[in-house]
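Annex B, item 7. Sequence and structure tokens for protein A, then protein B.
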Amino acid sequence: MAESTEALRLAAFAHLDRLKQLYPDGALPSAQINAFSYDGKPLRLIVQTGIWKPAGMAAALSIRTTYTAPNEVPPYEDDLGSDGFVRYKYRGTDPDHSDNRALREAMRTGTPLIYFVGVDRGVYAANYPVWIEAEDRAQMEFAVSVDPAQRALATEDMTWREREYAYRLTKQRLHQPIFRTRVLRAYADSCAMCRLKHVQLLDAAHILRDGHPRGLPVVPNGLALCKIHHAAFDSNILGVRPDLVVEVRQDVLEEIDGPMLRHGLQEMQGVRVQVPRIVQARPDQQGLEERYEEFRAAG
């Protein structure tokens, strides 16, 4: 039985791998996620209850965090513990609920799970494998690791450097990819400056930098930018005025070089940034003003 359930999990991971090739922005429709079959039988990978343990399995197969509006902080960000591990709440308040027992069994056996995070209604980012590392019955929650290297740190006597490293791994493996998926989806998989639509070449740029007190991983603090415009924005070669018009640093405008400088950077001068259709997803005005002042100071 253990070998068959392990094979099922690997088949589920392979199914999600294929979907990520079809949806390079990382936004997977739930209908496609659940179009999974194993051994000739259909099997859902995601359910509305949050924790999912199919019949015949002892440990849970997947966990789910619901979609939040573009201007709200996702629950996984709020529930990040001081040790750098994600916190996942019990199903209800009964520690012995069958779903909670299924997560406890995954913890006991070191069984890998899938973590689905809602990025739109009926659309999810899939993170796998993740592991249940610890349980806090007082807080009615489990600690979740999202990286193999993070698992080795899952001890009660972690040093502050280990906690910092665990937090950085969570950001790299969970927060940043989901932030990218949410921002790209809001901007219809298109660079806000040049309109490039090759998703593999698009990033989610923070308006207020990651690490700023208000530099949260929410869509109004993001811009979908191609890699060259992301790098130019981060290094203050390009700036975005509060009225959403692009400015190019004066010394760059005066340079003479090849077509990339001319078409890729200089011709962005005066371009109006494309914004999401949903009002709540549009760039935060206060954040734009503060970041534009940084750009002007750099010039």
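Protein B:
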Amino acid sequence: MKILLWYLLIINALGFAVMLADKRKAKKNKWRIPEARLMGVATIGGSIGVLAGMYVFRHKTQHPKFTIGVPVILAAQIVLAVFLISWFSKGSL
């Protein structure tokens, strides 16, 4: 359980950081981080960090792919976590 918490902390910090990096690159008209990579970080557990980065840095907030997609990913992750916690607490595995 401790490893999972560390993983989530690190991946969400990474999600926050990639949103900051992409915003800075956008301001300087430099090569950008692909949207698929940003969404990928959200998908593998960094959705809270990506979502926070979106609104803190005002980045990708006009893109439905992000304003709808990232909250949907987060909701799915919450549902999955609740299911798994419920499953394991019953001793089903």
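Comment on protein B: DSSP finds four helices and no strands in the chain.
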